[in-house]
Amino acid sequence: MSARDLFHKAVKNALQKEDWIVTDDPLEIEFEEVTEQDKSKNLMELRNKMDWLPSIDLSHLWNWVIAQTPTPTPSPLSTPAKSVNDIELLKSQLEFLKATNGQLGESFNRFVAAMQFTLVVFAFLGGFLAYAVGKNLDDAKKIASQLINREIENKITDLVQSEVESVKRSLQRERVIGSTVVDYYLPSDDTTEPDDCKLLRTRGFAKVRFWNQKRKPKKPVGDIFVLDLINSKLLEGQDFVGLSREDAENKREEKIRNQIDLALNLLDKTTVLVIYIDGFSKEVKTLATRVDYYYVAANTSITLIGIVADSAYVAHGQHNL
Q: Quick check: helix, strand or coil at residue 320?
């Protein structure tokens, strides 16, 4: 097979673009092997068939060839009409682009003119407004100063109002604490007032009354009743010596229950019980299942002060129901 020339691929692509179908690339043609004897035989047959050639008048041969030749049909490779159409189409596209470019230029010029007119109008309005607001810079400064002062006054008024409301709420809370009576009971023979009770006195309650085993509280008690099981040493000492851990725990819970029951016998429904106890207690945890009183537990001096103050609001709400 001979090698493809430089124009093979270009010609093939051009044919395919014109909807020609390439069935074989390359097209292979098979020939039978011809011997010298076959060549001589074929040559003799060709000579016999061409015996008529001398009888032809060569002067009329050209006219006969022209008459026998059909009118050529334009091949896909030679399409001058189409090339002319493509050129016309290209010209029309160029004319369209030229016209569009001209229109865009005119639109841009109109836009620039409109913007210039707008700027002139705004400049005129700005000058008019400046003249209407004030004839000079001092008038503008006065107006700005008045606006700023007014805004500052509004902000200050809001802040002052907020602070006043906060002070009112604080005074209301302190008024509640200042009207609350606290009974502090130490179930012990020790008559020394604990430091925790002294701290409650400094908080500003109306009264903080101290009670012990020798001077027991009596009805009616105040708004809050504090049962001190920490400073009383009731849950420690000789009563727990020699007991197993389980027995000591049971005895501790029994003492806690007895002291709570004694305190409940003194309380009104509006009184809040504060149990001052160290560590966990089942009796305290399950107290709500057997009584209908407001109660809470505290285990340190700090929590005691805060809980008694919070309990004052609960007691105050109970009195106002």
A: coil
Q: Are 182 and 208 in contact (CB under 8 A)?
A: yes
CA separation for the pair 155, 152 (Å, rounded): 5
pLDDT digits (tens, 9 = 90+) for 119-177: 776 766 766 666 655 556 677 778 888 888 888 888 888 888 888 888 888 788 889 99
Q: Are 166 and 210 in contact (CB under 8 A)?
A: no
Q: Which amino acid is at 48?
A: N
| Angstrom distance (rounded) from CA 227 to CA 259 | 8
Q: Is the pLDDT of residue 264 over 60?
A: yes
**Rounded CA separation 255/280 (Å):** 14
156 token code pair: 């200050």
305 contacts 221 by C-beta, under 8 angstroms: no
Report the C-alpha gap between 184 and 191 in whole angstroms: 12
More confident residue, 70 or 318: 318
Q: What is the DSSP string of 98-143?
A: HHHHHHHHHHHHHHHHHHHHHHHHHHHHHHHHHHHH-SSHHHHHHH
Which two three-digit tokens encode residue 73? 């049909």
pTM over 0.90: no
| The predicted structure's pLDDT at residue 127 | 65
Residue 180: half-sphere exposure toward Cβ, Cα within 13 Å: 31
At position 66, the amino acid (one-letter code) is I
What φ, ψ does residue 275 adopt, rounded to 5°? -100, 115
Q: What is the pLDDT of residues 3-16, one digit of tens each?
A: 666 667 777 777 77
CA distance 221 to 211: 11
**CB neighbours of residue 257 within 10 Å:** 17
